[in-house]
Amino acid sequence: MKCDIKFELIVTIVNKGFSCDVIDAAKKAGAEGGTIIHGRGTGINENAKLLGIPIEPEKEIILTLIDQEKSSKVLKSITDAVGLNTPGKGIAFVLEVDKVAGICHLE
Predict the structure, then answer these.
(1) Fold classified for 7-106
(2) pTM, rounded to two decimals
(3) Where are the extended beta strands (E) located within 1-107?
């Protein structure tokens, strides 16, 4: 069976604890869900200390595979919900996906 839907992958990277907000916003805009991966940041804002002890810059990476037609709406919903246009809140970007297996139930 050939899947004719074109997909994109929205990758969102936020501070630990904000992944549920990202998933909720994505679902409200038409996504079915997402995958959360735990990570650690190394950006310029990741060198904070508390009482001289380095704070571990824990991050959550949310992968949202979405129909290309819904991609912009979902990205805007995530950006607004988490405040990605505010410095230090996180980033999101979209990647084109050439091939997909296992989710053609969406057709």
Answers:
(1) Alpha-Beta Plaits (3.30.70)
(2) 0.84
(3) 7-15, 35-40, 49-50, 53-54, 58-67, 90-97
